[in-house]
Request: fold
Amino acid sequence: MSQNIKKETSAGKKALGFLAANSVPVMFILICAVCIPISGFSPAYLLNEIVTRMGRNVFLILSLLIPIMAGMGLNFGMTLGAMAGEIALIFVTDWQIWGIPGVVLAMIISIPFSIGLGLLCGKILNMAKGREMVTSYIISYFINGVYQLVVLYMMGSIIPIKHTTIRLPRGYGIRNTLSLLSMRQSIDNLLAIRVAGVKIPMLTFIIIAVMCLVIVWFRRTKLGQDMRAVGQDMDVARDAGINVERTRIISIVISTVLAGFGMIIYLQNMGNMPTYSAHSQIGMFCIAALLVGGASVDRASIGNVFLGVVLFHLMFIVAPSAGGKITGDTMIGEYFRVFVSYGVITVALVMYETKKRRAKASMGEQLQAAQQEGE
Amino acid sequence: MNVRKVLFRVGTVAVLLAIAACMMVIGRGHTVYFDNKKLEYNGQTLDTYRRINVFVNGEQVAKLSAKDRGMATFTGQKFSFDIEVTKEKGDEPVTYTFPITVPYGMDGIVLNLPGMIEELPEEAYASEFVPVATETTPEDEEIVTDEFGISIESAEDSAEAAPEG
Reply:
């Protein structure tokens, strides 16, 4: 009898522990479970939307995993890579390189920009250890200003931009929206298959799968192990002979380059590029999606990426319609999803800090106990 | 840094540059405009045809009556198309195949089909298409977004706030 009670208690504890550890995904599953029937969307429509959004966003979110591995938290500086991707797309559009060659060329052109920006970001973050997230967030604003200076004033005047169709009427600067129709969904449409009315962009998924395998392989390499060691404890890693600063910079550079590729994949799917604003919110929403998938500031996996994209975007799709049906105003759903996006990041940051303080406090207690025993 | 590392890096950059160069060649997009319009050359006037159907890779891309213009897009520098020409009502259509090479720097090329059919020199029937820049308002620009808060307001504000050059 007492054994049964013990078993039930431990099972209850386990369930509570599981819920506590996965509170964010569970909350989103509940929100989606309530909103989907109210929204009235058919399963086929939802599936189609989710598949499209997975192809569009997963690569971008995968770029966040490596800095987390290196203990640098959520890389808000991925916006820098997004800007590099956009600059590459502006050049490719001006040079009239279409289709998949255009996408590949844009990716190659984005690499030097991403590396340069990643190096800058990594060096600054090394000067602000322990405050990486807020620093990378502010760096993204700083580089956004530089991006606007380059794109709005230097392109067309100093940097040659041939086509008047992409230049502002005043003769320099790039138009607010750049048409990417010549490469729209070129990756998504190649090898695409239809299953029960759902379009599956096979090539995009193959690229994502390869990226996932590369991340899994990278974790096992010497550099990957170094990053994990740095992520766990910088002092121990340094004592073990790892060049901590260099390892951290490399993780940010890799993340920035991948974010550049991800942004190009994202924008080729959309078919147009809002020149001055496409990158501004992308970091925030990618981070929110990753956190919704159950990741935290110091722990994230490929599974979190996929679960996050599905849940976060499912909420994005159904919330306006559900909000409209409940309150008669679709804007309620819009507000809801915006506050949920920012809210989930806030909750994740608070939970991380609480966990860190608890760990510190328990370590202090253990130390005190050890000291008392010694006396 | 050891020699092997340097060689690996230089090799990587060289491979990326080679791929980029290939992409620039095979992905260069051109627009071809087909005109079924009167052409004057060396005092000679070539009249239009009643009907010209233009095919690219077996697919009809334009159906031109007299004075019409059609267009097709392609990537790369070499392009081939077929035309099916009906001179007068009731005539049997005649088929021609034309391979053309468009210079790399030319975005669009206008081809006068009556001139091509009469086998005039290239400078008579081919000319560069120069688009006229139109001032677009944000309302004209169709913007596809997802829900990532992408909007063009901030950019418009920046552009408007900028001093005119």
In short: Helices of chain B lie at 3-26, 113-117, 122-125, 153-161.
